Amino acid sequence: MPLIETEMTMKARVHVMLKDRVLDPQGEAVRHALGGLGFGGVEKVRQGKVIELDLADGTSEDTVRDMCEKLLANTVIESYQIELV
Amino acid sequence: MRAAVVVFPGSNCDRDLAVAFRDAGFAVEMVWHKDTTLPKGVDIIGIPGGFSFGDYLRCGAIAANSPICSEVKAHAGRGGFVLGICNGFQVLTETGLLPGALLRNAGLKYICRTVPLIAGTTDSVYTNGYSLGQEIGIPIAHHDGNYTASEDVLAQLNAEDRIAFRYGNNPNGSTGDIAGILSGNRRVLGMMPHPERAADEGHGGTDGKALFASLTSAFAAA
User: Between vectors from CA B87 to CA B82 and to CA B92, what angle results, nearest 5°?
Assistant: First the structure.
């Protein structure tokens, strides 16, 4: 019996964070709330986002980088890291 | 005199902006985000406030990559005039037509109230109806109006007299109290406050009217 060929896919995970020089008032609010819950010693909180992409197998990291530059991150205020998984 | 107002899914100030243009004497056409051409002979494009594409990803990011925005960029590239208000300002920064970006308000709250604005320059078709340093009251209604830009960009905006409006009492943490900025050729204005919501007696304030009236003078004379 012929095997049914499933389309191969790969996954990329893009981490987007505000750049260090950019104030993150949401992260600061989270830090404050953690303090309110009694968690001491939280010096700093930065909040970002994770974007998962299911991609056709063989999609290059350069293509994902292009996606980041054009849409997924605003490089005026955000930096990004690409993880191919 | 012809104006086009771009409509995205989630725009909610598009009709208010059209009314303000119309009251100022413009013929107005609404343009859908999927359109790939602008009406012929358009003098100015308005990018309205609202929550285009639900503010998904980042405010204005998806709108900035919609088909009509290629035309908006081409229009600006030809020296055309573009007025972006609130979400429209966010769209203009995302397209790169204006520098910098708009972050979450420093106090994390959505703010909806009339605030004092100071006219930062009179050297533009948008602001020459005000006097330098004049204080006006214009409503703001935003969650992400906290303007930021690199030191170099801020120095350039100041040196080139491109800060159209500053907040009299900074409500959102904006760097340099910046509420609105002009492009290098002074023909693209992005501002978070809503002049179209202060352009009729029924609005409870008419301080925004001079902005549209000065556009009328500029284009009627042209």
Answer: 40
Cross-chain Cβ contact B103/A23 below 8 Å? yes
B211, two tokens: 């902005």
pLDDT of residue B220: 86
User: How many beta-carbon contacts under 8 Å exist across A and B?
Assistant: 37
> What ipTM, to 2 d.p.?
0.88
- Using CB atoms, pick whichever of A26, A29, A71 lies closest to residue B61: A71
Question: Catalytic site residue B86?
Answer: yes
A 25-44 residues with CB below 8 A of B?
A: 25-26, 29
B106 to chain A, closest Cα gap in Å: 6
Residue bearing tokens 């404050």: A32
| Whether B13 is catalytic | no
- Tell me the average pLDDT across A10-29: 94
For residue B100, the chain A residues in CB contact (below 8 A) are 76
What does the pLDDT read at residue A4? Answer: 57
The shortest CB-CB distance from A25 to any of B57, B94, B106 is to: B106
β-strand pairing of B188-191 with B81-85: parallel
With 0-12 / 13-18 / 19 or more C-beta atoms within 10 angstroms meaning exposed / middle / buried, residue A4 is exposed
Of B113, B101, B104, B110, give the one whose Cα is nearest residue B181: B101
**Reported pTM:** 0.94
